[in-house]
């Protein structure tokens, strides 16, 4: 999933002369589009369709066999990637990205609702983080595709990744089973409809309007969504423009960047998200301890978990500033490494806090659509960066801004703002939910997603 989605970041290069050899390697030279059009492909061209489909994916996932949905979705996004690899015009490539986003919208609620049903509530942030680590592994594979591109060109790389996606779909179809469907079939065989089956079949059947209404009623949820929105802006901007930044700063280090970035994203990103979930759950247990043993003062469990994104996002800002202005490739690489370690710990803990603030378990899958809207809005940030570095500028202003300056003064402030918003959200979670609400809302933390969040 993430390999297919992130491949577009690494098959473009706006810093080399136009030659037949370059056209074979890079889509922007072969098809002929500029940085503004690239920013659309890398961001809103995908996420607009993804977010729109996500609004209804939760209800679909609530009604039908999730294992089959997952398999069909994987085949569909692989076909969309293959179609894009055949594109000869920008509209064709944009259509393939939109089709890919539409197909991928179904996989997230499938995965997170399945996780929610098999994971103990006290380990939900850890489970979120384990699953989210796949985002970073896929992102690392996408970075390594620079090497694949050098051997078989950008079109060949696209077909190769699509082939892996189709193989993954086949494996999913063979081994993945929906426990809800198994229980339903057992109940039908026995001639009864069990209460548990009925509950699972209807727990996510909340409409989009009702979901928005319930979320808007909750001040902590509004604060957390605002924090996540700004944090997504930083993450999507980094993901979309990181490769172009390094290629502009160190044009003779393309292969080195592809390999080192792959290791950093896959290893450091995965470690950070796993550690973030484990630390957040540990902090929550400390906050729930007997008053005589508490180490976190008056913090409740949800507030304790939010310490992870608060601190991580705050530290990420100066680290990114160092990376964007580093005088050498090695120093920039070290900065990127540290940046991933401190920044990517936020996802699981933030989701756990978000769903602790929503006591209604029926929002489990439907809220995924609302959450995905954030990714569409956040993807306006990479588009704005594309405009800043173009000849036309952003609304006619700041034309031809150097890419280092554009990324420095957008990503670092976004990290700081998100840290402050997470801190504000924690203050709004001052009243811990009741025991019944706490259990269900913690469990449903795994039902949201983004991939994003390559974060």
Main pleated sheet = none
Count of separate DSSP helical elements: 21
What share of residues is helical? over 70%
Shape descriptor reads globular
Cα-to-Cα separation, first versus last residue: 15 Å
Integer-rounded radius of gyration: 22 Å
In total, the number of strands is 0
Helix/strand structural class: mainly alpha
pLDDT under 50 segments (min length 5)? 196-204, 432-453
Mean pLDDT: 84
Strand content: under 5%
Overview of the molecule:
It contains 21 helices and no strands. By secondary structure, the protein is mostly helical. Helix 5 packs parallel to helix 7. The longest helix has about 50 residues. The protein is globular and about 65 Å long. It starts with a helix and ends in a 12-residue tail after the last helix.
Features:
globular; 455 residues
Q: Could you write a compact summary of the structure shown?
A:
By secondary structure, the chain is an all-alpha fold.
Give the topology, please:
Layout: H1 2-6, H2 20-25, H3 27-32, H4 35-42, H5 44-63, H6 66-85, H7 90-104, H8 107-118, H9 124-175, H10 179-189, H11 195-202, H12 208-217, H13 219-249, H14 254-287, H15 301-324, H16 329-343, H17 347-356, H18 366-378, H19 380-388, H20 403-428, H21 435-443
Helix pairs in contact: 4-7, 4-19, 5-7, 5-18, 6-7, 6-8, 6-9, 9-14, 9-17, 10-11, 12-18, 13-17, 13-18, 13-19, 13-20, 14-15, 14-16, 15-16, 15-17, 15-20, 17-21
């Amino acid at each position: 999933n993430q390999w297919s989605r992130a491949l577009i970041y690494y098959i473009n290069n706006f810093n080399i002369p136009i030659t037949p050899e370059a056209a074979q390697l890079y889509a922007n030279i072969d098809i002929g589009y500029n940085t503004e059009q690239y920013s659309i492909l890398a961001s809103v061209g995908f996420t607009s369709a993804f977010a729109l489909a996500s609004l209804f994916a939760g209800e679909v996932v609530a009604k039908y066999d999730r294992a089959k949905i997952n398999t069909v979705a994987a085949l569909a996004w692989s076909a969309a990637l293959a179609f894009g690899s055949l594109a000869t015009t920008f509209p064709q490539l944009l259509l393939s990205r939109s089709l890919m986003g539409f197909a991928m919208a179904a996989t997230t609620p499938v995965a997170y609702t399945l996780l929610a049903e098999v994971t103990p509530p006290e380990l939900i942030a850890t489970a979120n983080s384990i699953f989210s680590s796949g985002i970073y592994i896929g992102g690392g594979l996408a970075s390594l595709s620079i090497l694949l591109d050098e051997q078989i060109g950008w079109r060949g790389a696209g077909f190769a990744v699509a082939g892996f996606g189709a193989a993954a779909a086949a494996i999913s179809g063979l081994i993945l089973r929906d426990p809800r469907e198994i229980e339903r079939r057992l109940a039908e065989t026995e001639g009864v409809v069990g209460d548990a089956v009925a509950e699972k079949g209807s727990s996510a059947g909340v409409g989009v309007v009702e979901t928005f209404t319930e979320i808007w009623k909750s001040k902590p949820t509004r604060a957390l969504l605002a924090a996540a929105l700004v944090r997504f802006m930083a993450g999507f901007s980094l993901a979309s423009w990181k490769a172009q930044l390094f290629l502009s700063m160190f044009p003779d280090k393309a292969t080195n960047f592809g390999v080192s970035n792959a290791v950093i994203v896959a290893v450091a990103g995965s470690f950070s998200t796993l550690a973030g979930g484990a630390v957040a759950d540990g902090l929550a247990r400390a906050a729930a301890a007997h008053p005589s043993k508490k180490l976190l003062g008056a913090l409740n469990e949800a507030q304790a978990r939010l310490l992870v994104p608060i601190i991580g996002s705050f530290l990420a800002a100066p680290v990114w500033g160092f990376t964007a202005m580093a005088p050498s490739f090695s120093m920039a690489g070290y900065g990127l490494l540290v940046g991933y370690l401190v920044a990517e710990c936020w996802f699981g803990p933030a989701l756990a806090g978000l769903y602790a603030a929503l006591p209604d378990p029926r929002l489990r899958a439907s809220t995924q659509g609302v959450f995905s809207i954030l990714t569409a809005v956040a993807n306006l940030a990479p588009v704005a960066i594309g405009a800043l570095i173009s000849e036309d500028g952003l609304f006619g202003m700041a034309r031809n801004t150097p890419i280092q300056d554009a990324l420095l003064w957008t990503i670092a402030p976004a990290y700081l703002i998100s840290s402050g918003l997470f801190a504000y959200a924690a203050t709004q979670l001052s009243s811990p939910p009741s025991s019944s609400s706490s259990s269900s809302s913690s469990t449903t933390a795994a039902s949201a997603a983004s991939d994003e969040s390559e974060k």
